[in-house]
Amino acid sequence: MSADDAASRLFVYGTLMMPAVLHAVCGRPLASGAATLADFARYRLRGRVYPAIIGERGASTAGLVCEGLDDALWQRLDAWESPLYQRQAVTIHDAMGHGRHAHTYVLAAAHHAEIERSAWSPEEFAQLHLPAYLARWTGATP
């Protein structure tokens, strides 16, 4: 496992876990699999339907690791994630427990006051917010 491997992997933990959102943002499907990120916690953000992660010793965040990213796709993701987040190199563990290098988007320190200390649920998001959220990014009506 080399640090260069991280350049082609993205760990997602929020709305990008939804295949339709990931495809809308990336413009193509990506191979993905279950993964976890240690020492980061996922929280709701005040007034938003999407989450953020921050470093928190002992926490663990479940998500997906996406493979096959290139420079053009990283530029697209950096723009989509906005200054609210910063891309950071991390070590994730895949479904087999193997450590792998990847990048993920962590809440920028300047926005930590926007965290609500309550868990964000992918299932709740999919049930209550996904159609409207997706329509916002694709121009479709919910």
How would you describe the oligomerization state of the chains in this entry? single chain
- Percent strand equals 35-45%
Distance between the termini: 43 Å
Estimate the mean pLDDT confidence: 91
CATH homologous superfamily?
Gamma-glutamyl cyclotransferase-like
Q: Name the helix and strand elements from N-terminus to C-terminus, one letter apiece.
A: EHEEHEEEHH
Helix content: 10-25%
Contiguous runs where pLDDT drops below 50 for at least 5 residues: none
Number of domains: 1
Q: Can you summarize the main beta sheet?
A: 6 strands, antiparallel
CATH topology: Hypothetical upf0131 protein ytfp
**What is the CATH architecture descriptor?**
Roll
What is the CA-atom radius of gyration, in angstroms?
14 Å
